[in-house]
Amino acid sequence: MTFRARHLLGIEHLAPLEITTVLDLADRYVDLNRRTVKQSDVLAGMTQINMFFENSTRTQASFELAGKRLGADVMNMSVAQSSVKKGETLIDTAMTLNAMHPDLLVVRHGASGAVNLLASKVNCAVLNAGDGRHEHPTQALLDALTIRRAKGRIQRLTVAICGDIAHSRVARSNLILLGKMENRIRLIGPPTLMPAGIGEFGVEVYDDMKKGLEGADVVMMLRLQKERMDGGFIPSEREYYHRYGLDADKLSHAKPDAIVMHPGPMNRGVEIDGDLADDINRSVIQDQVEMGVAVRMACMDLLARNLRAERGRKIAGEMV
């Protein structure tokens, strides 16, 4: 398997073959997770620390479950009661954790680049569970696996990403991944929720939902990131739903077999019609949740292999 990364900090530094490696291994973990006995010993003897500076039910639960199914000792660090709240710097926290000799560190942080900073200060493998507006690599990988299993491929598809593009790290990671895999990408949303200079990314930009969805294979809805908004980006949620919320009428402009995605948590009646979100013939939202555990298992497995190999080389070098 081709996967050279020491950390998983973003999609940007992954080659297409490495992305395929993660998806192929994750496919095998989907099968494992559907068995009665779901345990593996791939991470036996290794310690995983989950450190979430931002709340996240889905991502934290998914990483915790992934680590436990692989046999790791998993610790969830409660940041609300941690020394960070008492004034400790992020670097001091990293040094403290490093002294405990963890093997895998899963970090979610509100500041872009914070996870990269931590990775530069520790000896273990670091996985980015979302940092500011920067990236959310495992979300893009689980989305890719969901698409590939639904469509039979992850290349040469027309993918429409709709909603709050400007504040979304999910959108950024998906843009990078889908671009690497040679897909046609359309971004749909109000101009106030589009990043500056987005036209330079080689994507098509629409502020008309129906035109943007024309002939799409995949419709990926995004959550309105209200916690990252400091102004009036939309007139009202009601008006937003009328223009940019996904309903059956707007979806009818996409291909008849187009799939509907959402990273969650959903604001029903704002970003997506509730009945459409639950439509088992179109929606793959619950599949995304299932794929999330498998993809995170694959990522930790691959990083652990590289970590063991690195430590093995170090020991061999010391013996020479």
Notes on the structure:
The chain is an alpha/beta fold. It is 41% helix and 14% strand. The strands form 2 sheets. The protein has a 5-stranded parallel sheet. A 4-stranded parallel sheet has the order 2-1-3-4. The longest helix is centred in the C-terminal third of the chain and has 35 residues. The mean pLDDT is 92. It is an enzyme of class 2 (transferase).
DSSP strand (E) fraction?
5-15%
Low-pLDDT residue intervals, each spanning 5 or more residues: none
N-to-C SSE string, H for helix and E for strand: HEHEHEHEHEHEEHEHHEHH
Which descriptor suits the 3D outline? globular
Main pleated-sheet profile = 5 strands, parallel
Radius of gyration equals 20 Å
How does the helix and strand content classify structurally? alpha/beta
Count of DSSP strands: 9
Helicity, as a percent range:
40-55%
Q: What's the number of helices?
A: 11
Oligomer: single chain
* Adjacency order of strands in the biggest sheet: 7-6-5-8-9
Gap from first CA to last CA: 29 Å
* Average pLDDT for all residues: 92
Keywords: Pyrimidine biosynthesis, Transferase
Domain Aspartate/ornithine carbamoyltransferase carbamoyl-P binding: 6-148
Subunit structure: Heterododecamer (2C3:3R2) of six catalytic PyrB chains organized as two trimers (C3), and six regulatory PyrI chains organized as three dimers (R2).
Function: Reversibly catalyzes the transfer of the carbamoyl group from carbamoyl phosphate (CP) to the N(epsilon) atom of ornithine (ORN) to produce L-citrulline.
